[in-house]
Amino acid sequence: MNENDILIRCDELEWQPTLPGGWIKRLRSCEKTGQWTQLLKLEAGAAVPPYFHLGAGALCR
């Protein structure tokens, strides 16, 4: 690791309810740029409403 790296211990973060059947763990956010990174967990059958990204975005399974 170098001085600019950020270590996040995800297992120590609490899941926060965000939508019906869904939770997030906010990993990073920047007040200056408004950018953020989060983990999303959904129950079977839950869905995220339609949305679009203004910049880069990624979805991992």
What does this structure look like?
Residues 4-57 form the ChrR-like cupin domain. It holds the Pfam family Cupin_7. This is ChrR-like cupin domain-containing protein. The protein has a domain at 14-42. The protein contains no helices and 3 strands. The model has no long low-confidence stretch (mean pLDDT 83). The protein has 61 residues and is mostly beta strands. Helix content is 0%, strand content 31%. Strands 1-2-3 form a 3-stranded antiparallel beta sheet, with no helix packed on it.
Summed up:
0% of the residues lie in helices and 31% in strands. The chain has 61 residues and is mainly β.
List keywords for this structure.
61 residues; mainly beta; 3 strands; flat; ChrR-like_cupin_dom; RmlC_Cupin_sf; RmlC-like_jellyroll; ChrR-like cupin domain-containing protein
Strand content: 25-35%
Q: What's the overall average pLDDT, rounded?
A: 83
Give the N-terminus to C-terminus distance in angstroms. Answer: 26 Å
Percent helix, as a range, is under 10%
Radius of gyration: 14 Å
The total count of helices amounts to: 0
Q: What does the main sheet amount to?
A: 3 strands, antiparallel
**SSE ordering:** EEE
Number of strands: 3
* Envelope shape: flat
Strand order of the largest sheet: 1-2-3
- What oligomeric state do these chains adopt? single chain
The low-confidence parts are: none
Class based on secondary structure composition and strand pairing: mainly beta
Protein name: ChrR-like cupin domain-containing protein
Domain ChrR-like cupin: 4-57
InterPro entries: ChrR-like_cupin_dom, RmlC-like_jellyroll, RmlC_Cupin_sf
